[in-house]
Amino acid sequence: MNALLEPFRYGFMVDAMIAGAAVGAVCAVLSCYLVLKGWSLMGDAISHAVLPGIVIAYVIGLPLAVGAFLSGLFCAVATGFIKANSRVKEDTVMGVVFTGLFAFGLVLFTKVKSDLHLDHILFGNILGLEPGDLRNMLVAGGVTLAIILGLRRDLLLFCFDPAQARAIGLRTKLLYYLLLSLLAMTIVVSLKAVGIILVVAMLVTPGCIAYLLADRFDRMLAVAVTSAVGSSLAGVYVSFFLNASTAACIVLAQALVFGVVLAFAPKHGLLALRRRLPGAS
Amino acid sequence: MIEFLLTPFQYDYMVKAILVSGLIGGVCAFLSCFITLKGWSLMGDALSHSVVPGVAVAYALGWPFAAGAFGTGLLAAVGMAFVKTRTRLREDAVIGVVFTAFFALGLFLISLNPSSVDLRTIIFGNILAIADPDILQIAIISGITLAVLGLKWRDLLLFCFDVNQARALGLNVTALHYTLLTLLAATAVAALQTVGACLVVAMLVTPGATAYLLTDRFGRMIGLAVGMGVGTSLAGAYASYFFDGSTGGCIVTLQSLLFVLALVFAPKHGLRAARARLKGGARPPDAPASPENGETRPETGFQRGGGA
Questions:
Q1: I need a surface site. Which of A117, A162, B190, B234 has the fewest CB within 10 A?
Q2: ipTM of the modeled complex
């Protein structure tokens, strides 16, 4: 029993759990919109694209988060611009833009002497949070969450049916950029916890889990947040005993939940599907 | 000055790295023409991340890295297809869930057993320290890929352009689908050594996209793409000598620069050409229709409903 409670005796473990749960919750809320809108891989693109922003912000002395946010947003806007003004397909444009930015960031990183740790940017450093980090994360996460929940009806309509949203007088262009900004902001908040490469999992998997379980959006939000917070807590906790990468453990916990839900979801799961098929034929 | 510029060639490992990069750049560029037409760009990204657990296991057990990587890459592809056909989730979401799970598994395995393999080697490649057996594996993969593409390129082209037409002509589209997927996984494995898991997708997309802006004929598109792929890889590997080793970063940055140049200055499909046409009072050209049948287009992109 004592051994099981041991992680809670360390301040950094408790901090990591709080941070993981907070980041998980914010990402999960956003993931419901992304999954509906079909923007899952936009999260992947933006998250890679923050790298040059971080390095440049370091060089000119801006807060790293600001640089990361701006270059993430730049990636999204550039993708939209090139898509609209050339004949190249959107998925291709996205691939070209984010890898270009990531590669540029990498070259910059090797040329700029800094005390940044590339490993921490790539995989997060949730066990080594500094005192201010957790507070910043909670504040930024809280603001993001408040905006999303405050505008959740508008955003939902925008994701489901932009034409309808425009018809009833919503400013869809504004919502488009708002959702992009929220996405970039969430990614920046999550970087310290799970890093560039795995943040996309936090932004996709909970939404998918919830989409398989719930048919109503409110319920979908609740399921996504619950599964994400649970996975974060479990992942951080387990990583203590396995001495394994914390970010990887969180994402694997989510993947495990997804696997179980995929098989057993009452209505949209594989087993339910199989049961329905013989009856239907 | 000349002497300074020639220093990279005095080192055996640099010459080796430059040549191997050129080979991989060429093979990837060839394939990228098909991938960009088919709309599979993000599949390339997903597969290149999915090979990581295979590499980790292969290194830990002393197998050839290509075998492990190829195995998990294909496993991920099959897993994505399975989940996608059986659930109501969109394809882009399924890709996101599956490849991050694989990548996390790889990271997990490496963090349990950090001594067996260097994570950075996988993420960023390490062409400067490539071992001879690895070069052999890459050469074999490249040879097979080039042979298959060379023999089957007409069938694959039709498959990428118009699946229904290909089926109507009696081609085995399922076989072609898996052929292309296998080639994609194989080249992703080869490119892993040069540019690493994060940037493989650039090698598999950017040359094709750049060439697509420059020409309307597929034969010429392949030629241009391969030329750019080989050129940027040789130059990037060479430049990385002066940039302390981020070979992948240098190669992909060069490729992106070429793309930007083509985007702005391409004679027919560039931004300037489009603007000149508008100014000349000519009717703006209709947005060129995507060459591919709507039915086969994966829902990877976002729908820009009312957006920018």
A1: A117
A2: 0.91
